[in-house]
Amino acid sequence: MKLHKSNFLRQLKAVADQKQNETFTTWHELNGTIGQEYTFGGLWEEAGAIAHDLHHKWGVKKGEKVVLCYNFGLHFFAAFLGCLRAGVVAILVYPPFPPLTKTLTKMEKVIKDCQPVLILTDVTIMASKKLDELKPFSKSKGMWPKGIPFKVTNGINFLTKDGKFDEEDILESDIAFYQYTSGSTGDPKGVMVTFKALEANVKLLQDGIYDDFARDGLGADDIVGFSWLPQYHDFGLIFASIVPFAAGWRMHMMSPISFIKKPLLWLELMSKHKVTLGVAPDFAYHLVVRKFKEERSKNGGKSPIANFDLSAIHGLQNGAEPIRLDTRDTFTETFSEFGLRQDWFHTGYGMAETVVGATHMPQYKLSRPRGEDTRRFLAVGSRETFHDSLTGKIVDPVSLTELPDDQTGEIWIAGPSVAAGYHGKPELSREVFQAKLPPEGSASDQDDSSTTFLRTGDLGFMQDGCLYVCGRIKDLLIINGVNYYPQDIELAVQSCNGVRPGCVAAFSSDDSGEGDGQLEVVFEIRNANKKTAQTVCEAIKSAIIQDIGIVPSKIIALEERSIAKTTSGKIQRRRNRDLLHANQHKAVFVLDQSSMLEIAATSGGPQEIAQDLPPSEKFDAIMTLLLGSCYDPDSEWDENGLTSLILIELNNKLAESFPATIPSDFPDQYPTPAALKKYILSPNHGSFFPVEVPSFDTSATRLPWPVVTLLQGVGIMVLFLMLSASTIPSFWCYKLIIYDGAPPALGILLPLVFLLWHIAFTLLVCLSKWTVIGKYTAREVPVASLYYVRWWFVDRTVHLWEMLIGRYVKDTPWLWLFYTVMGCKVHSSSKLDCFLRELDLLEIGENAEISFGIKCRKFGPWQESGRHAGSPTLRFRPIRIGDDCVVEGQVGPGVVLGDGSKVEKLAAVPEGSQVPTSAIATGSPAHQSGMAHPKKNSEHDKKSMAVLRIIKCIWPLMELYLTFAIAGCVGWAIATGFSGFEWRYSTLLKAFLIIVPTGIGNLLVCIPMKWILIGHRKPGPVTNNSIFQKSLDWMVDYHFFASLVLLDLVAENAVMINGFLWLLGLDIDIQTKVWCVHFPPSKVDLITVTKSSLSVAHFDVKQDGEYKKIHIENTSIGHSVTIDGGVTIDSAQINPLTHVTANIQATMLFFSIIPTYEFYQVDFYVPLVGFPVVKMALALAVFCFSWFFLLVLLHWVTYPSQYFFGARGQTKPWSLAMFAIYMDLHCYLWDFSLLPIFWGTPFFNLFLRGMGCNVEGQALFFGIRLYDLPLVTIKDRTIIDSCIVSGHSWVYDGVYIGPTTVAGVLHEGSFCLANTYLEDSSKETHPMQFVPPRLNGGEGI
């Protein structure tokens, strides 16, 4: 018999035609807004388009199987209807959400069982699949189905389809879809639902709801439904989707994830849209009650939902899991004052084997005691609510005879709603779906011996015509609403050492049917393992978590031969549970929640590994610390529970403990701990460097903290005065050049005005150093001392010089001259492409190349005792860099680098290390990884380098004239265009409009300079290595970097900058996000970067006398990544920190200068110096505070809930655009606001508090960056020295935010991102290391 034209699908089509333009369902997002809507006609048309493509585009035939793998949303139901219309068997699977290893494993088993020909999906799941497959260390990327095509159905257009849409030859006996049960993970069972069963069950549910509404005089038009149930689940698919569509009801829906995140949104939307019919499992009713009471208490007793009204609700269906007896009363008591009727509570009973529903109970009724059994059960149906064609029996599961009322037996059901059986399991199908009562087995007058029944496996009884369910025959466990088979859990337990096989029982703590219980496990432990019973129990816990995915509440080790069994040797699970709860088991050890907490407390969380252990034992100790005592050295990393965060910490621990280079992808290179151990302990590695830390002067004059603060305040005012006083020579030079009647030729001297300010401020910096600190010596001083204040003043002065002047003279002899005057012993042939501090303590030999900043000081933690108690310390030690050394990484105080040695990028040489001659230092902490072979310069080379140094002296002056020439042209154009335009801020506006075009003009000059002076650079041997070519490369790169200073804000991560870099020769697409500064013109021809995002990256395109191409595609490059020439990076994620920004803040930058301009217009003259020095100094202070208030405002807008309400649960910014603006302007503030003057003082802590940062007590900050301040907590006695601390992190699908807490001493190069938690003020981080995020309490995410 054909079904399509006469029955179910015909009914659906009639509804779609009748209600063509009426809204069927609305999808609500997490914020309550409408995400998507479908009309009845629109949904039916999209389903038809999918049916068309299934047949005509993808070649799927009637009866073939198609998996529906969709994110929560309305597209799933359209695809499901499309399969029905095409006669294709739909396979419903849980969407692949994290943890992907679990969900993909379940999907793999379903696919293996049903053998589909196609997988239909949406753009969200397809994007997740592609991104997961890009991740280098993803444990799930190889688990996605292979050999079966994925097809995305989003956007399929109904109007473009020709030919028939529907399969006409659909019979009642044809399979409509498979519903896989959520039971045993090892043996999935696909329930085969026929069109006949689907139609019958839809009618059963419709009739039950119609009857309920009709009793109150309501009809179908009064039904407005709401559901957040998962659509792949039978309850959500049938009750909340198919039934409403077939009946023509109005529906509202949202994601179950939205409900979990925001439970009260369910109530809010039901109130807002006057919902009359809702559906949810039992736990949901208790959850919203608890959340409502919590929010109401916070709201001063007022309802947290505005205009809250539940009077429209006619009934709420409770199902899909066991129902607690107090659900109705608790819910009614909480919400009756908001109009909730007393008889809202509806229950029901069903399962996938009956499509979804078997009975319906529109009232609350409890059972009476039955003899000695005084337990109360909740009625889930009655004989009256069974469908006319549905039969229910209570049968003795052993004798197979029907039982009378009040006797407990197995529930049997017969009728058209019963499914056809389990796919591929004929024997099990006959046993479960084709049970029969013997002729004498019926308790009724009619003969039921010919009727085939479904054996539900549930225990229940009939009383007063009502059905009560009281348990399960097969000991099925329901934990958190999910079914688990005890056999699977017991198998996982038996895999652990020390467990007697066949002597394990797993059960739920509550099997009364009143609600979910918790997993409890008892097992017999071998006598030989009694002393290590705790370890065995911990191993069992890990095995259950890893294999099953749930956390047991109790694990009990029993004496041998004490577990309860039947006489035939079968485990008695219920008996063991009863013995456990009665404390009658012979327990050897009990691992429960309290003992787990005790173990954690006594272990103290992550521990330090003793460095004097033998190497093999040290390795094992690290593995035990991070992977647990039950880790298997011969099992692969994912089997040992290695996560991405443990990977970071493991890498750090190994680097600290062994002189070996640990590859970032070691899980791929060395797939097991044993393989990695063999590599690390091999004799081919080097060794840690010997350390010498001689004693030094520790005497210092202690000062009270208020005095230190006062002196620093005075120092800040002096710094502002120095900045303004340095303009005096420039002012008089300007007056001499520009005066009435001055010849125009004098205009050529205008650049000298700028140059004189550079010289004047540089001389003041040198003078302040020699006046305030004199000559640095090796010593240790408390921060609360006069010497610290003197050092701080000089350090802030030098930092200002680096910001304003030093950036223009890096890698020039001018920088060498400045450092020589400041007391540094640096050879004139050395190349300095970085900044140095504490210069008297630094000695740099001949031909050394320094590209990483060097500081001859180091902070120590707050002292609890001794002469420096109550203060942190600051140590100064000399550093010596030998001849021909190359320094690309960090060098600590007291380090001596032998001649010809090399410190590689991202290496950190510890304090006092003695690096031998020609050694290569790698890692953090650094170890010797090989021998360097420095090239000795010939006399010709020395002469060539001297010529290059001369060029580097002259070229900055030429750049100055070039910039002024461009600025003059721009200024003339603006003056002409604005002639006659008068406004109070017209002068300021003109100056601002000159700066931006000047920067753009300078950048545009880079393009012809690059192609004329460098040309197109190709991979291959370096054929032209002359001093002339080196000079040209340096000049073009210098111009590039100097030009970016004026446009730092708009040149980073802007779409237009990709076009500029493309004109320079970079192979880049429009989608890629980059920091322009990392692509100098001399390298761009050798780099290809597409579909990627790059933060701080360094490209070594010239290696071993060759230019080597670098390819980057589909990749995220994080902070401080170095990429060697010749490397191809495809589909990878490097480092979690990626900085993506936008460029719309130019107007905000202009307005931040207005307060400074206004202040300067005040008549305030100091005749003693002939120039308003004090006035300008105060104007600079106003400028600094203007930036501060702008940042406060930006924090308010970017993080309103965190700033004003202290909220910490948010995981994403409320606006990505606002977040991008914040990040860009925040970076600009750090560089140009003059706030670094306040670093290291209590005044800066006040700034941090004003911007929303939680600073708990005393703290010292000395750069580099603090982001997302309302999310950051700085503990008392914390020192942040040249680190990055933020409350965000970038991953493939966007930016995530979270609380960050730091404490102790964070040394140079440390990175702390969202969800980092450090709380020990006595601890110090290692330099150049990423601190893995951790949850409060030290538990990894």
TrEMBL record:
PROSITE patterns: AMP_BINDING (PS00455). The keyword Protein biosynthesis does not apply. Residues 919-938 are annotated as: Disordered. Keywords: Ligase, Membrane, Transmembrane, Transmembrane helix. Residues 16-423 form the AMP-dependent synthetase/ligase domain. The chain crosses the membrane at residues 67-94, 703-725, 745-767, 953-975, 987-1007, 1177-1197, 1217-1239. GO terms for biological process: lipid biosynthetic process. It holds the Pfam family AMP-binding. One of its GO terms (molecular function) is ligase activity. CDD domains: FAAL (cd05931). This is AMP-dependent synthetase/ligase domain-containing protein.
